Amino acid sequence: MAEKTFSEFYQSILDLVKSFEKKNIMLKIEKNLESNIIQIFGENTDSLSRAKNGIEDVSELSYTTAEHHPYWALLYHCTNQ
């Protein structure tokens, strides 16, 4: 049942994006419905800002991974300056 609800949410997002396209505001959507993830990028989003966002996601993973996990230090030190 949760998958259907998320799919309905995704469809609502698509409808919203289409309404903005009619106003000449371009948005890009990337989805991973199996993981319940939807990303929306504005028309001025470039590759660098998308990469920075991805690094922030990896950084968040390093914060939530237990310190005794073998990959914790690798994630933490690769994403923090």
Secondary structure topology:
Blueprint: H1 2-21, E1 28-32, E2 37-41, H2 47-64, H3 72-79
Antiparallel strand pairs: 1-2
Helix pairs in contact: 2-3
- Ranges where pLDDT stays below 50 over 5 or more residues in a row are none
How far apart the termini lie comes to: 42 Å
Number of H/I helices:
3
Shape: elongated
**SS content category:** alpha+beta
Order of helices and strands: HEEHH
- Average of per-residue pLDDT values: 85
User: What level of helicity do the residues show?
Assistant: 55-70%
Describe this structure in words.
The protein is an alpha+beta fold. It has 2 domains: 1-44, no CATH class; 46-81, no CATH class. It contains 3 helices and 2 strands, in the order αββαα. A two-stranded antiparallel sheet has the order 1-2. β1 (28-32) and β2 form a beta hairpin. α2 packs antiparallel against α3 (72-79).
